[in-house]
Amino acid sequence: MDDTVQKSCWGVTAWAVAGFAGIIMLMWLFGSVETATVVAAS
């Protein structure tokens, strides 16, 4: 029982970390595109 709970907890943690990293990557990507657009326009 304890092994199942521990695996489940690590699974949730892994998904949370992956989701957070994905959001950061998207923000960084769109931030870079926005910066490149501003530089190209000027």
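Second entry:
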Amino acid sequence: MSLDLKVIQLHELPEILDFELKKQSELGLSEDDKIFESWHAKWRKESLEHYLPLGWSFLAREQEGQLSGYFLAQPLLFFEGMTQTLWVEHLQFSSLQARDQLCELAYKLAREKHFQKVVLPNQSTVSNAIKHLKPENWGPHFLQLITSKM
């Protein structure tokens, strides 16, 4: 079963926040820890207000309309000698299917737009999803995928 993938709209911001708070609850954090975590989280409200209008962030929905995952991204221009890099700063998902489809979408989007690479968070589950694309380490927190011949 395929998920519905689409650009996140600003009016979906509260749903993203609820999704993240639910993920925090699954980790068993105390209410104080949840508040402290949300202050510097990549998905905090101010961050979402920046990323969502750019039009490079996508979400995955199940057929029933339930949010299954999303990523926050933006293009980096003329960075490290590359014309364009798609930087996926944050990726969150509730299923491996959402993870796989969102990673594939980021890679295909970068290729389609003629970007030279895509940078994804270096999480073990993400590296499993993209290992067939031969990711390389890009610092301690990110992986890069070359999307064009160099």
